[in-house]
Amino acid sequence: MAVSLRDTGDDLAELAEINVTPFIDVILVLLIIFMVAAPLSTVDVTVDLPTSNAQPQPRPDKPVFLTVKSDLTLALGDAPVARDGLQSLLDGQTSGDRTQRIFLRADQSVAYGELMNVMNLLRGAGYLKIALVGLEGVPAP
């Protein structure tokens, strides 16, 4: 409560004014906290992606496997295939059914960009359902 020290005739009359100085101090402190914390929340963080522990999906009766070997050659099933002949061989294996899922396997040493190039080949051929095949297991510590 604020008190006036002026002599008004009676003893220490109360003032109806609110002291806003503490309120402004609190607001300024909060402003500084948010100014410091906001840039910290948008920092890019490098992430090691974990091994998947998702439940395995049931396999189709006759899955179509496309493999990218470590020397970047492709194999459809067990037979090697050229990149330019991939669409015709896939159409032969799937009987032209482009809604069928293609299981894509790649050697661990294959670069991510090369894997994306193969996925672009599949997309260009009209095969949009692609499943990435990996080893099931416990994530490394």
Helical region count? 3
CATH architecture of the domain at 64-132: 2-Layer Sandwich
Q: How many beta-strand elements?
A: 5
Strand content: 5-15%
What is the CA-based Rg, rounded?
A: 34 Å
**Biggest pleated-sheet summary:** 5 strands, mixed
Short description:
This protein is α/β, with parallel strands linked by helices and 141 residues long. The protein has helices at 21-40, 86-94, 112-124; strands at 64-68, 74-76, 79-81, 102-106, 130-132.
List the helices and strands and how they pair.
Elements: H1 21-40, E1 64-68, E2 74-76, E3 79-81, H2 86-94, E4 102-106, H3 112-124, E5 130-132
What does this structure look like?
The chain has helices at residues 21-40, 86-94, 112-124, and strands at residues 64-68, 74-76, 79-81, 102-106, 130-132. A five-stranded mixed beta sheet has the order 3-2-1-4-5, with helices on one face. The chain has 141 residues and is of the alpha/beta class. The chain is built from three helices and five strands. It has a domain at 64-132: Nucleotidyltransferase, domain 5 (2-Layer Sandwich). It is 30% helix and 13% strand.
Keywords:
alpha/beta, 141 residues, rod-shaped, 3 helices, 5 strands, Nucleotidyltransferase, domain 5, 5-stranded mixed β-sheet
